[in-house]
């Protein structure tokens, strides 16, 4: 009897086997393969001699690789910092509004989340039409209401293109961030607010002394997810600006640079080695930065 129970107990572990195979085959194996390939020279698809850190050294010291890498990682950093304000801050405010007793909050919650149901490629294509300087609906609307001076080549200007992409990305992900924040806000006991009001606490005081500290878990989750998404962003920029990150590399990020380097590189046979090295660098940046943020937020949460 005990033997049969033990056998059934072990058979339960077989249910995770399909997910484990998928995880190893499509995540762990590609990461290990990229790490291994980055230490070799390549002749087309044929692995050559061991090259050590040569591919990494070329990316960091040899132009145009160094120039493109610094340019791309700078854009990723801007993408993350601006998204904090354009998406997370606004999403937190919307979550607080919906968490209140406002009428129609269920409709607003659904309407804000609705864009997330669309494909990123579809969103990018639609906004490339909306922001078109010639026939785009945004410039047409501005001209129709007498604000033609504000009409700009939103995706064709090196000064505006990156920020236009960031705002589109923020609009697309606003609903998901709002729901995460809403879950955190709804977990705060109402009795704490009632006690604070009895003690004469103002709305601002309750925001910074109760709401934000007690919602720190959801803020931590969304900040880390936003950082990862900002440094992995590809589809939206590819749909709106192309793989070159135009105009003049003004929207080029690490993933579009990786795409060109690994799959459309003029370096020919060396593309796999250089592309693998860049993929490893992106992985290390995301892993280390996420670990630092997690450590900081957890330490902050303990202090609170």
Span from first to last CA? 51 Å
Question: What is the average of the pLDDT values?
Answer: 87
What is the gyration radius calculated from CA atoms? 24 Å
Structural class assignment: mainly alpha
List the helices and strands and how they pair.
Blueprint: H1 2-11, H2 17-37, E1 40-43, E2 46-50, H3 54-61, H4 65-99, H5 105-113, H6 120-130, H7 137-144, H8 161-186, H9 190-198, H10 203-214, H11 216-232, H12 235-241, H13 254-263, H14 271-303
Antiparallel strand pairs: 1-2
Helix pairs in contact: 2-14, 3-14, 4-8, 4-11, 4-13, 5-8, 6-12, 8-11, 11-14, 13-14
Please provide a written account of the structure.
The protein has a single domain, classed as Orthogonal Bundle (MetI-like fold), CATH 1.10.3720.10. A two-stranded antiparallel sheet has the order 1-2. It has 14 helices and two strands. The radius of gyration is 24 Å and the shape is globular. It starts with a helix and ends with a helix. Strand 1 (40-43) and strand 2 (46-50) form a beta hairpin. By secondary structure, the protein is mostly helical. The protein has helices at 2-11, 17-37, 54-61, 65-99, 105-113, 120-130, 137-144, 161-186, 190-198, 203-214, 216-232, 235-241, 254-263, 271-303, and strands at 40-43, 46-50.
């Amino acid at each position: 009897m005990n033997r049969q129970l033990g056998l059934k107990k072990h058979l339960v572990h077989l249910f995770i086997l399909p997910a484990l195979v998928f995880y190893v085959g499509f995540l762990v194996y590609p990461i290990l393969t990229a790490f291994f390939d980055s230490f070799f020279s390549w002749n087309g698809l044929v692995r050559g001699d061991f090259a050590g850190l040569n591919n990494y050294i070329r990316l960091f010291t040899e132009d145009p690789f160094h120039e493109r890498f610094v340019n791309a990682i700078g854009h990723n950093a801007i993408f993350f910092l601006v998204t904090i304000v354009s998406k997370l801050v606004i999403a937190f405010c919307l979550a607080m509004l919906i968490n209140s007793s406002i009428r129609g909050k269920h409709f607003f919650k659904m309407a804000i989340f609705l864009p997330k149901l669309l494909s990123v490629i579809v969103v990018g294509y639609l906004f490339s039409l909306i922001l078109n300087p010639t026939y785009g609906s945004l410039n047409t609307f501005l001209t129709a209401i007498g604000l033609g001076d504000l009409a700009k080549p939103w995706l064709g200007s090196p000064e505006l293109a990156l920020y236009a992409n960031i705002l589109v990305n923020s609009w697309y992900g606003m609903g998901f961030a709002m729901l995460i924040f809403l879950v955190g806000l709804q977990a705060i006991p109402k009795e704490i607010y009632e006690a604070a009001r009895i003690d004469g606490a103002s709305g601002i005081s309750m925001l910074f002394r109760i709401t934000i500290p007690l919602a720190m878990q959801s803020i931590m989750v969304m900040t880390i997810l936003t950082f990862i998404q900002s440094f992995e962003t590809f589809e939206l920029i590819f749909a709106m600006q192309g793989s070159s990150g135009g105009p003049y590399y003004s929207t080029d990020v690490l993933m579009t640079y990786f795409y060109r380097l690994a799959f459309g590189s003029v370096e020919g046979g060396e593309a796999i080695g250089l592309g693998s090295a860049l993929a490893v660098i992106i992985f290390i940046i995301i892993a280390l930065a996420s670990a630092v943020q997690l450590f900081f937020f957890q330490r902050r949460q303990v202090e609170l």
